[in-house]
Amino acid sequence: MDLMVENLAAIDDKLSQRHINLDPGGYFIIYLDRDAGLIYAKHFTNVIDDRGLAVDPETGKVIPARGKIERTHTTLFSARTAKQLCVNIFEETQPPPVTQLDHAAYLGREFVRAEVALVTGQEYVQD
What we know:
The protein has one domain (2-120). The two termini are 24 Å apart. With 127 residues, it is α+β, with helices and mostly antiparallel strands. Strand 3 (47-48) and strand 4 form a beta hairpin. It has helices at residues 2-15, 82-91, 101-120; strands at residues 27-33, 38-44, 47-48, 54-55, 75-79.
């Protein structure tokens, strides 16, 4: 069984290294509030420049993929389950802040991972 889990993890690790086109609708920072029993998703707007990089619409500076930056989110979504969070973002928010199907699929996967971590007490780190 461990070999199977390791193989699956290797597949996902490799896929996490692929190039993705950024969503001009913005990006999300996902985190947990264990005390409240909630999954949070902060939505931030961005602009995609001619190099395909996300830049802050106010400053024009490139938004780094790693590290801390000080930006104000446009919307804060929260829910107890991944499904509830998806309904809030994709069905109840019009127009939804996601413009690409691959981004929507990624968020669904991440919300499920966050929910599992919340329920099991495991650490959650956004991929």
